């Protein structure tokens, strides 16, 4: 089928012929340079699964433990991410609270869970009826997971607060840092195209 | 080659979710991707209109986002309201130049650039401009990926509000500017998502 | 190729494994690190915030309040508190908890730091061995925490005075402890107090230490005069207890056990040495005893040898006589002083003294208050008497008080004055005054006449007068020297008149100052 040997660039609509790529290579649109496809390693799925699982666990740890502790005049205060969202909500900033909650907890968690689900389904070779909507979801929601921006925001506020008080970085801070890297690694190693292809073969 | 083979030109549709190339149905019928079931569109529906709508909305909210305070600091000595700009100024004057530059870039430059760039892109398509399509596409790619970083200030405020709650000594509360700013970020992200960069190339292909 | 792949694959799986292990270890640690959870019930949740309020022991943070809820009967508030692990051993039956808030009491200001940092829960570890998880919080911080070294003592007082829990205890005006608790006696006859004196000052409490209520200002206005005594400003405001050991020597060992001390109302009563012997006598006074109160001292030449025990009125129903018997308690030991004579039989010493002329007399102790006291003194001029035994009670003969004598002398003087021919003198004086008066009016008439005649003949009379005056002058000159007989006479007469006038003036002044002198005459020297 000639169609499968062709890829369409999503940014300039150009038809590109698919060429075989070396290991780890990336194909780009000849006209606009947009990413087309890549050749991921055969164990990319396993790798992604491992990373995604690790990220899930880190996400739990990052939300249970406090991000930072503050001490001023002998008064101590510390917060977890959920506490922070609750503070925002209590301050009547409902929109901001919802936004932060979505972008730092819901979306990253959902994305990771979806990836894990898909990869496990693929691993088991099951038909995985839910895998399709999951992949769909992953694609749609990719832009809305902002853990790395959050980590930077925490660091900025940490520096801002050290001027006026004694700040103690909490366990969650490091967890979020590690989580940020793991999410990036997962995204880098997770090959959606391959997943689609494999899903198709399973049907 | 003035006529590059485009999918639409050849009656093909690319699924934006799973990238599967399928044959376009006869006009008037809705096509669904055989792999993922999503409705197939040749171009993002009402791309320009939606982009403009989101852009204008975010431009309207941009002023209150910057003039309304995003954070109120109350202490024994009184209440002090901070806007994004005054927060940057505070960082600068207290010696954290790097942070000041960072926050300035993320919270002021990025949204502004985003809005302006998207406006330029949308206008260029609207006006059927043919200059530098590749650059414009690259610009679009950049905007789409970098937009999330303007959320930085919102997260900073979140942490500060959560931590500094020592009622008598000092307490920080969210101001109305934060909601406006959050809305600006969300709207610009929607605007970027609505814009279809293929339109840029379509105009090139149309030249007589 | 394949082994390489497998190796990198294995490596990847390390990551979630590590993540899982870390997460698991953290979870386990969090659970293990969790210390005991207790509940403390308080009357109010003021200052208690879940997840914020800390629990501190010796200023070390050992836990936090996790939740605040109503008790089942909705009458109190139950705080759930999570403590750190090391506090396991502290949670015994008599451990106490209280909320530290800013507090201002009369003797101390505490907890001001909590205005800024928020209230916290303080803890005092008990010494019991029985472990406990449900506590009842105190409403006020305990005065004394269990681990402060020192001793508790019990005092018994007639009334609480102005003492309260927390009132200071002083030794030599230094605060060494405080009142910890008080309660009424079961039979309501007094108040039982418990005080705490901190170490090492508790060793100053010996078996014969006296405690007294040093509250407020000890102002006494009595027969001995005015005395003002105070321990400290604090004790003036909130009351206090002071103690001292009479005749103290450092060698006396501190008191053992848990004896019950008496709390005396003031220092004087506390430090009074116990008297071995006590004798009761009766005194009959003929005069008013107004100003004499029970407890007034019986004084022998300045030394207090006893006190008034009771004052009665004795009406003889048959004869209608009234007497005022005053019962006094004497301590003959004091009369004897430091002499080492063997204790005489009851009344022997007093009897001897009476035989020698000792009498009891009422005297004014304080002019300000009009208080009287009983004075025992020797009156050599008193009629012979001895200690009487009337109606079962031993009586010491009395003597009229000097005030009474003064009254009697005054009445005598008054009688004398009465007898003086004042009337006659007065009428004579009046006659002279009348003559004087007529002279004056005549002179006045003459002057008026002169005036009238002067008007028509003004100039002439004046000229004549001046002539006459010149003539008189000449005549006077003619009469020459200062020693002219007429002049001398005139001068003499003038002098007489001036003396008389002066005497009159003096009399007038004196009468003005001492109006009673008309009656008494000049009695100042007499009364001495």
Estimated helix fraction of chain C: 25-40%
CA distance, first residue to last residue of chain C? 141 Å
Largest sheet of chain B: 4 strands, antiparallel
Q: Mean pLDDT of chain C, nearest integer?
A: 76
- CATH class wording of the largest domain in chain B: Mainly Alpha
Name the overall outline of chain C: elongated
How many DSSP-defined strands of chain B? 8
Structural class category of chain B = alpha+beta
Q: Indicate how many domains the architecture of chain C comprises.
A: 4
User: Shape of chain B, please?
Assistant: elongated
- Number of β-strand runs of chain C: 28
CATH fold name of the largest domain in chain B: Butyryl-CoA Dehydrogenase, subunit A, domain 3
State the CATH architecture of the largest domain in chain B. Up-down Bundle
Can you walk through the features of this model?
The complex is a heterotrimer of chains A (203), B (208) and C (528). Chain A is built from seven helices and seven strands, in the order E-E-E-E-H-E-E-H-H-H-H-E-H-H. With 203 residues, chain A is of the alpha+beta class. Chain A has two domains: 1-39, no CATH class; 43-202, Butyryl-CoA Dehydrogenase, subunit A, domain 3 (Up-down Bundle), CATH 1.20.140. In chain A, helix 1 (44-64) packs antiparallel against helix 6, helix 4 runs antiparallel to helix 7 and helix 5 runs antiparallel to helix 6 (171-189). Chain B has helices spanning 47-67, 84-93, 97-126, 133-146, 152-163, 176-194, 198-206, and strands at residues 12-14, 21-23, 31-32, 39-40, 71-75, 78-82, 165-166, 170-174. With 208 residues, chain B is of the alpha+beta class. In chain C, the strands form six sheets. In chain C, strands 19, 20, 21, 22, 23, 24, 25 and 28 form an eight-stranded mixed beta sheet that branches. Chain C has four domains: 34-136, no CATH class; 150-271, no CATH class; 279-400, no CATH class; 419-526, no CATH class. The termini of chain C are far apart. Chain C has helices at residues 2-33, 114-117, 233-238, 267-271, 332-336, 348-355, 402-419, 422-454, 458-478, 485-513, 517-520, 524-527; strands spanning 34-42, 54-57, 60-70, 77-84, 96-100, 103-104, 109-110, 120-124, 134-136, 150-157, 168-171, 174-184, 191-198, 210-213, 218-222, 225-229, 241-244, 260-264, 279-285, 297-300, 303-311, 314-315, 322-330, 358-366, 371-378, 388-390, 393-395, 398-399. Chains in contact: A-B, A-C, B-C. Chains A and B meet through strand 1, strand 5, strand 6, helix 2 and helix 3 of A and strand 2, helix 3, helix 4, helix 5 and strand 7 of B.
């Amino acid at each position: 089928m000639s169609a499968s040997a062709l890829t369409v660039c999503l940014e300039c609509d150009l038809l590109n012929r698919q060429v075989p790529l070396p290991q780890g290579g990336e194909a780009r649109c000849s006209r606009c340079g947009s990413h087309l496809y890549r050749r991921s390693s055969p164990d990319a799925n396993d790798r992604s699964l491992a990373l995604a699982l690790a990220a899930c666990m880190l996400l739990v740890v990052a939300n249970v433990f406090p991000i930072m502790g503050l001490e001023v005049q002998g008064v101590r205060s510390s917060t977890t991410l959920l506490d922070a969202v609750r503070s925002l909500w209590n301050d009547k900033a409902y929109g901001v609270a919802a936004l932060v909650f979505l972008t730092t907890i819901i979306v990253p968690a959902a994305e990771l869970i979806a990836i894990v689900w898909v990869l496990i389904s693929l691993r088991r070779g099951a038909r995985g009826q839910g895998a399709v909507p999951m992949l769909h979801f992953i694609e749609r929601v990719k832009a809305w997971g902002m853990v790395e921006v959050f980590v930077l925001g925490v660091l900025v506020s940490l520096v801002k607060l050290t001027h006026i008080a004694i700040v103690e970085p909490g366990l969650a801070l490091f967890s979020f840092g590690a989580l940020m890297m793991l999410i990036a690694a997962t995204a880098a190693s997770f090959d959606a195209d391959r997943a689609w292809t494999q899903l198709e073969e399973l049907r | 080659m003035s006529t590059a083979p485009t999918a639409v030109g050849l009656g093909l549709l690319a699924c934006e979710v799973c990238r599967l190339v399928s044959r376009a149905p006869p006009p008037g019928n809705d096509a669904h991707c055989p792999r993922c079931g999503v409705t197939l569109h040749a171009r993002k529906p009402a791309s320009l209109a939606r982009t403009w709508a989101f852009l204008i909305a975010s431009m309207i909210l941009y002023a209150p986002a910057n003039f309304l305070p995003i954070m109120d600091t109350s202490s024994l000595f009184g209440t002090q309201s901070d806007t994004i700009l005054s927060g940057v100024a505070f960082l600068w004057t207290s010696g954290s130049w790097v942070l000041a530059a960072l926050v300035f870039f993320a919270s002021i430059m990025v949204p502004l650039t985003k809005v302006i760039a998207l406006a330029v892109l949308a206008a260029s398509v609207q006006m059927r401009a043919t200059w530098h399509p590749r650059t414009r596409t690259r610009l679009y790619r950049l905007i789409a990926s970098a937009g999330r970083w303007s959320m930085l200030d919102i997260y900073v405020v979140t942490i500060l509000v959560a931590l500094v709650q020592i009622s008598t000594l000092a307490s920080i509360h969210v101001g109305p500017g934060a909601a406006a700013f959050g809305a600006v970020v969300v709207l610009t992200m929607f605007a970027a998502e609505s814009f279809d960069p293929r339109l840029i190339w379509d105009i090139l292909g149309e030249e007589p | 190729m394949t082994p390489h792949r497998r190796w990198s694959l294995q490596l990847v799986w390390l990551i979630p494994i590590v993540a899982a292990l870390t997460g698991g270890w953290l979870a386990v640690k969090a659970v293990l690190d969790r210390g005991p959870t207790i509940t403390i019930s308080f009357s109010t949740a003021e200052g208690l915030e879940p997840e914020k309020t800390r629990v501190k022991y010796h200023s070390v943070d050992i836990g936090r309040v996790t939740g605040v809820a109503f008790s089942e009967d909705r009458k109190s508030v139950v705080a759930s508190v999570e403590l750190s692990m090391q506090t396991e051993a502290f949670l015994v039956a008599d451990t106490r908890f209280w909320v530290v808030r800013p507090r201002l009491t009369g003797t101390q200001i505490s907890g001001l730091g909590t205005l800024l940092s928020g209230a916290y829960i303080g803890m005092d570890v008990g010494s019991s061995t029985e472990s406990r998880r449900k506590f009842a919080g105190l409403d006020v911080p305990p005065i004394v925490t269990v681990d402060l070294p020192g001793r508790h003592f019990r005092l018994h007082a007639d009334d609480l005075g102005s003492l309260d829990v927390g009132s200071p205890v002083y030794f030599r005006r230094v605060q060494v402890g405080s009142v910890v608790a008080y309660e009424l006696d079961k039979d309501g006859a007094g108040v039982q107090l418990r005080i705490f004196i901190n170490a090492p000052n508790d060793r100053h409490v010996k078996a014969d230490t006296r405690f007294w209520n040093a509250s407020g200002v000890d102002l006494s206005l009595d027969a001995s005069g005015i005395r003002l005594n105070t321990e400290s400003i604090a004790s003036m405001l909130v009351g206090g207890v002071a103690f001292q050991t009479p005749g103290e020597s450092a060698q006396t060992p501190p008191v053992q056990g848990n004896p019950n001390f008496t709390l005396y109302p003031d220092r004087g009563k506390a430090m009074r040495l116990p008297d071995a012997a006590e004798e009761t006598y009766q005194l009959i006074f003929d005069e008013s005893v107004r100003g004499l109160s029970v407890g007034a001292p019986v004084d022998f030449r300045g030394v207090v040898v006893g006190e008034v025990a009771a004052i009665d009125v004795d009406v003889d129903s048959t004869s209608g006589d009234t007497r005022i018997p005053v019962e006094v308690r004497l301590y003959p030991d004091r009369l004897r002083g430091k002499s080492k004579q063997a204790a005489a039989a009851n009344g022997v010493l007093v009897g001897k003294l009476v035989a020698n002329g000792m009498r009891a007399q009422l005297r004014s102790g304080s002019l300000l208050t009009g208080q009287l006291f009983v004075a025992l003194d020797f009156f050599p001029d008193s009629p012979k008497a001895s200690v009487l035994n009337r109606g079962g009670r031993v009586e010491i003969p009395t003597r009229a008080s000097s005030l009474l004598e003064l009254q009697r002398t005054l009445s005598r003087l008054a009688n004398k004055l009465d007898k003086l021919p004042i009337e006659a003198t007065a009428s004579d004086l009046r006659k002279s005054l009348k003559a004087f008066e007529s002279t004056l009016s005549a002179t006045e008439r003459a002057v008026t006449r002169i005036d009238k005649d002067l008007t028509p003949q003004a100039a002439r009379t004046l000229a004549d007068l001046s002539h006459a005056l010149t003539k008189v002058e000449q005549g006077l000159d003619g009469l020459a020297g200062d020693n002219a007989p007429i002049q001398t006479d005139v001068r003499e007469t003038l002098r007489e008149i001036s003396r008389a006038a002066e005497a009159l003036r003096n009399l007038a002044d004196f009468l003005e100052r001492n109006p009673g002198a008309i009656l008494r005459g000049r009695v100042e020297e007499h009364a001495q």
